[in-house]
Amino acid sequence: MRVTVGVVGDFNPASRSHRATDAALGHAARALGVAVSARWLPTDSLTGAGAEAKIETCDGVWIAPGSPYRSLDGALRAIRFARERDWPLVAT
């Protein structure tokens, strides 16, 4: 089984919390015996047409730590998408 988690945030490799997010998904995958792919979704990519299609490619959504986001609107749209569709959502 493969699970894709859409991580909504503006990935910064220097951010300890962003690296920890990827590591946490890896730890959980090993503990559960499943394959997990983290797909970082930049917040500014979730404001225009096609934003919902990007989120729909994921099995769930994780709102990453590390605000301020480049686009608060993009982050809120991802949250609204998950809430309105009963999509799995984690916000940290």
Structural overview:
The chain starts with a strand and ends with a strand. It is globular. It has a single domain, classed as Rossmann fold (3-Layer(aba) Sandwich), CATH 3.40.50. A four-stranded parallel β-sheet has the order 2-1-3-4, sandwiched between helices. It has three helices and four strands, in the order E-H-E-H-E-H-E. Helix 1 links the parallel strand 1 (2-8) and strand 2 (35-41). It has helices at 16-32, 51-56, 72-85, and strands at 2-8, 35-41, 60-63, 89-91. The protein is of the alpha/beta class and 92 residues long.
Can you tell me the CATH class? Alpha Beta
**Quick one: CATH superfamily?**
Class I glutamine amidotransferase (GATase) domain
Under the CATH scheme, the architecture is: 3-Layer(aba) Sandwich
Q: What is the molecular shape?
A: globular
Assembly category? single chain
Continuous helix count: 3
User: Please, how many domains?
Assistant: 1
Compute the separation of the termini in Å. 25 Å
Mind summarizing the main beta sheet? 4 strands, parallel
Walk across the major sheet and give the strand order: 2-1-3-4
- Following the backbone from N to C, one meets helices and strands in this order, namely EHEHEHE
User: Averaged pLDDT, please?
Assistant: 93
User: How much strand content do the residues show?
Assistant: 15-25%
Helix content: 40-55%
Based on secondary structure, the structural category is alpha/beta
What is the third-level CATH name, the topology?
Rossmann fold
Instruction: State the total count of DSSP E strands.
Output: 4
Rg, Cα atoms, Å: 13 Å
